[in-house]
Amino acid sequence: MTSASSTLYFDISIDNVDIGRIVCELFEDKAPKATKNFKHLCNGDTTIEGFKNLTFKGNYFHRIIKTFIVQCGDIVYGSDKFEKSDEIGTGGSSIYATAEEIKDETKELKCYGNFDDENLGEFKEPFLLAMANTGEANTNSSQFFITVGVQPHLNGKHTIFGKVLFGKHVVRTIENVSIDKDGFPEQCVLVKDCGIWDESMGVPLYNACNDKIGGDVYEEDPNDDSNFDHDNFEESYNASNIIKESGSLLFKKKDFKNSLFKYQKSLRYVNEFMPDMDMDKNNCLKFTTLKSKLYLNMSLNYYNLKMYDECMTYANYLLDLDNIPDIDQAKAYYRRGNSYLMKKRYEDALASYKLCKEKNPEDKVIDQKIESVKSLIEANIEKTRKNLSKFFTDPK
User: Fold this and answer.
1) Example GO biological process term (predicted)?
2) Which residue(s) pair with 224 in the sheet?
3) How far is 187 from 143, CA to CA, in rounded Å?
4) Residue 1: predicted pLDDT
5) Which of 11, 76, 253, 255 is the most buried (most CB within 10 A)?
6) What contacts 24+ positions apart, CB below 8 Å, involve 49-52?
7) How far apart are CA 203 and CA 20, in angstroms?
C-alpha cells in the first residue's frame, strides 16, 4: 500500500458508553473517488436536496462478523433509531448523488450516487478499509467495512481505500459485540463523532490504556502487534514484562484504573505466548512467575478500586498456581482477607488472615488484623445475644 495524505477519525460508543477513537489513513492516490467521498461523509460538509443524513456521524454499525469484518455506513436506514429491519444494510448515499436521483420514486434500492470501483487489491492483512457494494461491480455509495483478519476471498471484489492506523483495540471491541444470527449487533455501536484527524487530537481510549509510559509501544491485542518476533519466547517475554512494568509506573502515580488496564494487557500477552511446560520448561516457568506477579498486582488494584469480589478472584488465581513462594501466597491471603473484611464477612476474613499468618509467621501486622477481626466477631456475637434476649424478657 502507499502512504496517504489524509487521516480521519471515528469516535465510537457502545450503548452510550464511550469506547475510543479509530484513526484511519486514506489511500488518496489509489482510490481518489472513494477517499473524497469518505472524507466529506466524515466531515458532514456536503448537502443534497432531499437528503438529511449525508454524514457518518450518528450512524451505527449494522453488520459484525467475528474474524471477518465490521460494517457501517448505511446512512439511509442506519442513522436514526437503532433497530433491526429488513431495510438496514440496503441503503446508502455518496456525495455524488443528485437531488433527482434521490427523488426518483421508481428506484428499487435506496443506494444513491453509486460510483466506480478503484484499487481492487488483495486483502493480505487485517484492518483494511474497503467499500461495501450491492454485490455487483461499480455500486459503491456510503457503506464501508473494516477487515479484522486476512480475507483472500475478497480479493479483486472491493475498493480498498485505507487502513486503520490507531484504535485497533476499538475495532476489536466492536468485533466482539454480541450479535444475532444475521450479524446484527445486540448493542448500538455508534459513530458518535468523526472528521479529519491530526496528531494534536490524540487517540482517546476508554476500555484500555494506550499510555506509552515505560516503553509500552505494543498493541492491546497481542496478535495485532508487529513490534517483535512472536515465535521468539525471549522477545515475547520481554514485551509482556515491559507492559507489566508500564502498569507498575502508573500504579506509583496512583492511577489504579489505567494501571489495571496495563496489567490486563500484559496478562493477555502472557497467556498468548507462554509455552507449554513440555515444550520449554525454563520459559514456561519465567512466564508463570510473571503471571503470578500480575495476579497479585491486579488483586491489589481491584482492592484500591473497591472492587472486592474481583480482588478475591485474582488472589485465588494466584493461590491456584503451583510452586508459588510462601511470601506471595501470604500477600494473596492478606488481600483476600482485606476484601472479606470490607464486605463484613468477618469469619471468612479471619480464616484468610490465619492462612496468611501460616505463610508469613513473622508478620506483626497480620497479628493485629487477626485480633481486630476477632473483636469484631465477638462484638457481633454480643449484639446478636442482646437482640435475642429481648424476645425472652417478661413483659412488664
Assistant:
1) protein refolding
2) none
3) 19
4) 39
5) 76
6) 49/99, 49/102, 50/99, 50/102, 50/103, 51/93, 51/97, 51/102, 51/112
7) 7
pTM of the model: 0.90
What SS3 string covers 298-347?
HHHHHHHCCCHHHHHHHHHHHHHCCCCCHHHHHHHHHHHHHHHHHCCCHH
Instruction: Give me the sign of the Cα torsion angle 42, 48, 51, 52.
Output: positive
Report whether 34 contacts 6 (CB < 8 A): no
> What is the per-residue pLDDT for 4?
42
Per-residue CA distances from 2 to 127, 155, 266 (Å): 15, 17, 33
Cα gap 38→371, rounded to integer Å: 67
- Rounded to an integer, what distance in angstroms lies between the CA atom of residue 188 and that of residue 16? 8
Whether residue 49 has pLDDT greater than 50: yes
Length of the chain: 396
Does the structure show a pLDDT above 60 at 87? yes
Q: What is the pLDDT of residues 295-335, one digit of tens each?
A: 999 999 999 999 999 999 999 999 999 989 999 999 999 99
Q: Is 6 helix (H, G, I), strand (E, B) or coil?
A: strand
Cα(279)–Cα(42) distance, integer angstroms? 50
Is the CB of residue 318 less than 8 Å from the CB of residue 333? Answer: no
Which residue carries 437482640 as its cell? Answer: 387
C-alpha atoms less than 13 angstroms from C-alpha of 4 in its C-beta half-sphere: 25
